[in-house]
Fold M3 family oligoendopeptidase.
Amino acid sequence: MKFKDFEYKRADIKDIKRNFQVLIKKFNEADSFEEQCSVIDEINIIRDDFTSMNSLSFIRKSLGVNKEFYSKELDYYDEAEPILDGLVCDYYKALDNSKFKDLHREKYGDQLFNLAEMKMKCISDNIIEELQQEKKLVTEYVNRGQSFKIEFEGEELGRWDFDPYIDSQDRNIRKRAFEVQTELYKEHEKEMQEIFDRFVKLRHKMALKMGYENFVDMGYARMNRIGYDKDMVAKFRKQVLEYVVPLNKELIRRQAERLGIETVKYYDEAVQFLDGNAELKGDINLIIEKTLKMYKELSPETSEFFKYIVEKDLFDVENREGKEEGGFCEYIPKYKAPFIYSVYRGTIDDFNVFTHEAGHAFQKYLCANYEIPEYCSSSEDISEIHSMSMEFLTEPWGEDFFGEDAEKYKFSHMCNALSLLTYICVVDEFQHFIYEKPEATYEERNSFWRELEKKYLPYRDYEENTFLDKGAYWLRQSHIFWGPFYYIDYGLAQVAAFNFWYKAKENREEAWKDYMKVCKSGGSKSFVEVVKLGNLKNPFEEGSIEKIAQSIREWVLGVEEELAK
């Protein structure tokens, strides 16, 4: 069955609530472990059906298929999902109080109970209304952002349509592109500021009702942070500051020399070479053909996986009218189907985004037969390891996609990953400030953001762009709005991906075996356990980032020297 034939039928939350209550009663009254396991299976079928219909609505609305209908369905799920979350919490409480708890722990593993504990720390009946409001606010924010348009070079562009111009070899074009893109944010500054303030106040209110001092610890619970806390995250950021920021400063200086300019301005950062960045070779159909070849050659598992994706039409990369911006992977458990979504613009990022989302999809494909939904997917700190590592593990096929620019691509990919790592720390520390000081004004938020840029991105020069120089760049970062405390997961995963990059250079076969172990574990282990399982360096341990940064520096300088010949 192909994706277009996947049946959609609204998951009725009233029926679900009724059935859940009956099943939880049945679970509590069960006389045997086996009977309770049977009830768990029934509960999970209901959960999988709900997730499937919600995901189908989101994908089809994003694709522009029957948009009005699926937009209304998503409005419905904004109301329904928090109710389901509350019901799942009731199930977790019953599981935690089960007289057969030890047997359940033996059957399903400790991680299910760890995840249940996290869920119960951030959801209760007395905040269902606020959770519904938050869902609606996310939808409002996304829809508003999709509507932002401005004219540039005779075209009407949205926020993310500027990438080809920002990557331009022509310095004047990329400067003007950034300036016009900035105008777009200036036009909508007030409404974005207002909607963000609503997010902050709403989340703070929920945290207080749940007994927290502020939203920070509740946010960590929502992200399923198991085995580490905000103090350990702060130490991680400190290591990035000590070992990655100086490396980036050196690389920016060398970038200026390559570009033949005195200093790298904010609109120069995306361009690594005077003759332009690496470019994808071929149209969208050829890129898909090459991707099929790449995954066929990468491993037997990826060959089988991508063949499945293509046969079932479980991807859409075309850039067309009516299709929404972005890149994501959604999972439809009813059909055991991961779906890869991206928008082809002919830039380096197209390759990065697709391989990134394919990493997510590959993990979900491998874990489709887990008994419980908690293990089919994983918390974001783990899931981003699958995706960010896939970006590096597919680099040997760079020549297929970039031709003679393959080494330029690998060089740019690594430099961009290092830059991203320090930017991630800006976002993360900023969010701690936001939720520790929910009463802060817009000006205070901007000021703190700019302080953090100077700390982690000390080379960033906004020239005469006063809007960005006052600290308003964060308005561009959607995760800050819809996914509080998500962004550091990219940082933790980036360090894991660097480990896989290094391991693959030493022994590719062993690196792939470890990557497969990480992917196959799905959500059955915590982040720290997964790092150990994959024979990776723990990013929280002192020295872990220093060592990999040294290895990366040696490689980057070596490649730069080769490219200069």
